[in-house]
Amino acid sequence: MPHSKFLRAVGDSLQFLGVSNFLLEKAGSGFVVRTAEPVDPGKLLKPNVSEKVWETQTSSRRHAKLFRDDGALHYEDSYVAWLDAQGKRKRRKRFSAQASATKNLPQLMRTVGRHLDRVECHAYRISWGDQEVHLDYQLAGGNRVQEILSIAKLRELTVRSRFRRAPRK
User: Fold this and answer.
1) Which of 8, 51, 67, 153 is most buried by a 10 A CB count?
2) H/E element, 95
3) Could you give the 3-state DSSP secondary structure of residue 107?
4) How far apart are CA 22 and CA 124, in angstroms?
5) Domain span holding position 85
6) Does a structural domain hold residue 169?
7) Residue 30 to residue 51: CA distance in whole angstroms
8) What is the pLDDT of residues 38-95, one digit of tens each?
9) Are the C-beta atoms of 80 and 31 separated by less than 8 Å?
């Protein structure tokens, strides 16, 4: 799966959990996310009875693997693929998603993922802040690259990429 899809799925999860500042590192085939403030696992619980009826034991077990004793969030590749599938289903139902796409965390992380896909990096680390994003990645030849992107620049790149996309059928 491309970095852009993985990062958008992780961004959906982080946005849902209320995380806005974090350090994300590629760890094997998954990701480790460290936050300055502890994340409440209770946010993943469904708020009302009708939603709990549809909650499966499998999805509850998947969520439980996210939170580890070290305080970090561990996104395994199978969990990220599951998050991506859940996100696709939700996005199909929302027509207004296009309007806010340049402002939300998942879309901005998707843009960063596209950049990482384009440069074909192998290992990377993303430090996400309120005003800027620090990228540190390793290229195929072993060279390390460090970049700083402002959130405003990421929004601009997100808008540009939307105009370049082929129309959906």
Assistant:
1) 8
2) none
3) helix
4) 14
5) 3-164
6) no
7) 28
8) 887 776 655 544 444 334 445 555 666 788 778 899 999 888 888 888 888 777 766 5
9) yes
